[in-house]
Specification:
Largest sheet: 10 strands, antiparallel
Number of strands: 15
Shape: globular
Strand content: 15-25%
CATH superfamily: HIT-like
Radius of gyration: 20 Å
CATH topology: HIT family, subunit A
Number of domains: 1
Order of helices and strands: EEHEEEEEHEEHHEEEHEHEHEH
Low-confidence stretches: none
Strand order of the largest sheet: 3-4-7-9-8-13-14-12-11-10
Mean pLDDT: 90
Number of helices: 8
Length: 338
């Protein structure tokens, strides 16, 4: 008889349904096949800057050629122009799509993020930080995130190694729910739920994949998909843009190892990455008043091996055929090759 179990994500209140019967062959192929098929049309490689001539940020090689660029998205889902106020529309509410949508071109060539050297990944992380800090100057913008999609099943539109920076004039629902859960936990126990999760993972050890001085990579207890990974900073900080220079180095190391092991385990499967950070604070004294103590920025890496099923759409409960303890044990055994 197949084993079944339900696990609750303490940060979101969402359930994951684990079932050995769902441990099927992945529906997605290697993203390397996609990259090889369309590499000749890659608009982001060096020499094709005319497709994105306006750089918002640029990190260069010692010879002056660029290494990392941030450019405006040519088809943005949000724009700086517009009215960020909410308006009534009969029974409903509406507002302009105010925000920002930028593309981080992570390398001048066709390498993937995990294949870059650690100093190069540091520059990618620094680009994320620099652009978020700049966007925060617009007082209309409240929430910021970094997202990355690799492979068409994960939503990638180009094969190049890119990530995207999104700034919104509202706090999105999933982030708001995390903020509410972390605040309620802190009010009841006077400590951060992130600290407790990290302490439990270190104590148990069986879901940890990799850690260095500043970061811990682990498979979440209620992982939504096979081989899902989370990266938590060990220092309490709600704001990614407050990351210290030494932490940039440590995060680059953690990202490189995590993605290397994930690709080795799943033969370069499609995945989505999200960097979740706290919103800007308002002057209201009772609003997110303990956020500096209760919330912690973090990264989620979600392989997209299967399309979403109707049960997941109907219940917001994920279905997973691989327990995180099994996935972490497999990932730990993969030797990292720099």
């Amino acid at each position: 008889m197949h084993k079944n179990e339900m696990r609750l994500d303490p940060l979101t209140g969402e359930w994951t349904l684990f079932s050995e019967a769902r441990a099927l062959q992945p529906a997605s192929s290697s993203v390397l096949e996609e990259q090889a098929a369309v590499a000749v049309d890659d608009p982001f490689v060096a020499g094709r800057e005319q497709y994105a001539p306006h750089a918002l940020f640029q990190a260069n090689h010692s010879d002056g050629s660029w290494r990392v660029r941030v450019v405006p998205n040519r088809a943005p889902v949000l724009r700086v122009e517009g009215d960020h106020a909410r308006h009534g529309d009969g029974f409903y509410d509406r507002m302009d799509g105010v925000g920002a949508h930028e593309v981080v071109v992570e390398t001048h060539d066709t390498q993937s993020l995990e294949c870059l050297e650690v100093p190069h990944i540091e520059q990618v992380i620094s680009a994320w930080k620099s652009r978020i800090q700049d966007l925060m100057r617009d007082v209309r913008l409240r929430a910021f995130c970094v997202v990355k999609a690799v492979g068409k099943p994960a939503g990638a539109l180009v094969p190049h190694a890119v990530s995207q920076i999104i700034a919104m004039a509202v706090i999105p629902a999933r982030l708001k729910r995390k903020l509410e859960i972390t605040r309620a936990f802190y009010e009841g126990k006077k400590r951060s739920i992130f600290a407790d999760i990290l302490a439990e993972e270190v104590r148990a050890g069986k879901r940890i994949v990799y850690e260095n001085h500043g970061f811990c990579v682990f498979c979440p207890y209620a992982a939504r998909a096979p081989f899902e990974l989370a990266i938590y900073p060990k220092r309490q900080s709600p704001d990614f843009h407050a990351i210290a220079p030494d932490e940039v180095v440590q995060l680059a190391d953690a990202l490189k190892v995590a993605l290397f092991k994930l690709n080795a385990a799943l033969d370069h499967a499609p995945y989505q990455l999200a960097l979740v950070t706290a919103p800007t604070r308002t002057s209201r004294p009772d609003h997110w008043c303990s956020i500096d103590q209760d919330f912690r920025w973090h990264i989620e890496i979600l392989p997209r091996l299967y399309p979403s099923g109707p049960l997941e759409i109907a219940t917001a409960s994920w279905v997973n055929g691989v327990w995180p303890e099994v996935a972490a044990d497999y990932l730990r055994a993969i030797a990292f090759e720099d």
